Amino acid sequence: MEPSGPDGLEKPAAPDRPATPDGPGARNRPAAVRAPGISRLAATVERLERQVRDAQAAADGRGVLELAKGVLVERLHCGPAEAERQLRLLAEEAGRPPLELAAEIINQAARDRVSEATQEFLRQAADPSGDPSAGAIDGTAGAAPGRGDGGGAGAGAVAARLRTAESGALAAADAQAVAESLLTHALRPLGAVAVAVWAAGADSALTLAGSAGFTAEEAARWHHVPPGVATPARAALVERQPVWFGSLARAGLPSIGQHALPGGGRVTVPAGTGGRVIGVLEICWPGVPEARSPQIERQVQALAELCARTLETAPSPAGPPAAGSRTAELIDLADGLHDAAFVLVPHRHPDGGLADFRIHHVNDRFVDLAGRPRAAVVGALLLEAYPLAADVGGLFEKVERVHATGEPFRAEKMTLTALVDQVPLTATAAVSISRHGGCVLLIWRLEDEAARLASLLHHAQRLGRIGGFEENLVTGEVTWNSQLFALYGLEATAAPVRMADLPAQAHPDDEPAIGRFLRTLMHHHRPSSISFRLRRPDGIIRHLRIVAEPVLDDGGHLLAVRGAYQDISAQHWTEVALAATRDQLAHTEQEAAESDRLALELQRAIMPPTRGPIATSGLRAAVRYRPAEHDHLVGGDWYDAVVLPSGNVLLCVGDVAGHGINAATGMVVLRNALRGLAATGAGPGQLLGWLNLVAHHLTDNVTATALCGLYEPETRTLRWARAGHLPPVLLRNGQARSLGMIRGMMLGALEEGEYDEGVITLEPDDTLLMYTDGLVERRDGSMQDALDRLLVSAEQPVSNLEARLDHLLTHSDADTDDDTCIVGIHLPPAA
């Protein structure tokens, strides 16, 4: 037995050197221990223990050699002595230890999990792009180079270790010996310091079947792990695949040896056969485990398979009953149940893997989803009888998981589906699945129509906050359901309230209405209903509605009253809030309508939809205004065409941002300001500069675009400027064109703004158009496309200027429902 350390882990064997009294640990030993006789005795005991371990290792190695000789006897058709001689000659020719060569011979013959692990090592070693640390995976770094075998020596060392561990495991009497063999021969070269073999119980509990590298006290402390305790071993049991923990402390899971190696890593591997996990192999490292790689995966899975063989064949302390007796006991258990029960036996592939479950027995309470008799189901495979159980997350997956892990499954409501003439038929059932030995017990209780309707009614009453009652007027007995007690705020053990006592429970203001309700029900024997306020014992007032009807005998005498209460408090307060909201909305709508009316009247007073033509100094001018279709979209578009005292003609259009009363008042300010400024005789650029100061300083954050022109009749010259507005359109000789985008930012945006001027001399029969964006703008296109369409429309031949403006309004395809202003001037042709 190896000496144990205070940390719960056994200390590794000491080097083979004599223990002298003056050795490194002598000063820490008591005087009695430092005596020469005692020291020699301790050294002798240690040497004998080491010899025993060496002898055990040699015995395990001899087992591998003997098995390899048996393979050679079968292949070479020779005797044992000749096979031993051939094995020795082959090892000498290959320059390799006989044990490694024997392991490779067994691998070629066995083709089992150990062979797979060795082949995986060979593939990785032969692949130059593989893991650079592959040569050190088996603890034999530096052994492979120089032998010319492409990594074969390293793979041989892996195979020798694994086969030696296998030999020791097969010869072991219990899982404890298996754990010691695995740690000694296979895991210590990987850097592991301890190993635990867990046996999984039928209830998914874990029992420590064997361990190595831990102290006896630590093993005794972790002898049994109850179901439901989260540990690294349980993680592998539940996930049914290897789980790697870089640090047990960071994982936060308790396990054996946790105090000795708080920062150490763990690898837990499920050990099972035929789809059933019967145990877990847990490997402990003092630090981070070996890097997860295909080689390590293969090796630890091969070791877990060795553990599974031992756990499957080793008897329990009480001695397991025969498989037949276990099945018979499970059948007796199923027959004693009041629900439909199935005894399922695993059905395996030829290679031993789980394929399906055979329905071995069903009890006499069996009810099939498709209405088939018991004889049609017994003996069939589960997926043959219920093929739709193979759906993801379906019944078969649940049964397979319970069989693998032993963890029972329960579901109050689970959807089951069967095929009837290729038509899926679904049913809801309460399902219970548990493992018993190697079999699985499946129990289901189909939900019948009455139970389903009762459940539906219960949930409807709960969701609708409805409580039912019945009062027997002959016996005085009153029956309430649980929901009605909750509505009244009473305990379920309290006495129900009789109908005659209802007025005392209600708000005083509701007593007259309750009196009429009771007279109609009790004296006139007619159904009745009422809404009232209930004063509960806890001081809460609830708004309830009660609907009741009388129960009469053949002679018309009143026997009972039955009905239902419904909590309508939420509905009542919703109606109150809705009424308040309606009142507020009506008031808001009235204010908005009044504001829109004022804005519309203001706009129409200042800018009528049309004005007759203006004729001055040989120039004809006309205007058109089209308001928005909706009153609440009253905008700030404006126009002006007026003859100034100087004889010049002021032409302008503008568009104030926004809608409603603010836009309308802003339009009035800018239009009137521009009229007053134009009387100074300044040019259009200067006028827009002053108008920008008005918009920026003398209005309430008004912004606008504008186009301003001054026509001089003597020279037929038009000077114009723009403030972020669309330029004018000139129609000459039947061709329409835009005058271009000269510099000028919108009004009110900045305190200072510069506005360039454009100059054009009108020729006889020229027409100039000024407009706002409501004439051309569309939501689904660019402004340039809209301007192109305007030019095409302006070129259409018409009789006079008024007809041209009407034509532009009529054929406008704008869709923004905005105001539109057009100002047009026409210079008649020379007589």
From TrEMBL:
This is SpoIIE family protein phosphatase. The keyword Transcription regulation applies. It comes from the Bacteria. Residues 528-580 form the PAC domain. Keywords: Hydrolase, Transcription, Transcription regulation. InterPro entries: ANTAR, Bact_Sigma-Reg, GAF-like_dom_sf, PAC, PAS, PAS-assoc_C, PAS-like_dom_sf, PAS_fold_3. Residues 45-106 form the ANTAR domain. Pfam families: ANTAR, PAS_3, SpoIIE. SUPFAM superfamilies: GAF domain-like (SSF55781), PP2C-like (SSF81606), PYP-like sensor domain (PAS domain) (SSF55785). The lineage of its organism: Bacteria, Bacillati, Actinomycetota, Actinomycetes, Streptosporangiales. The keyword Hydrolase applies. Residues 145-155 have a biased composition (Gly residues). Residues 1-38, 123-155 are annotated as: Disordered. It comes from Actinomadura fibrosa.
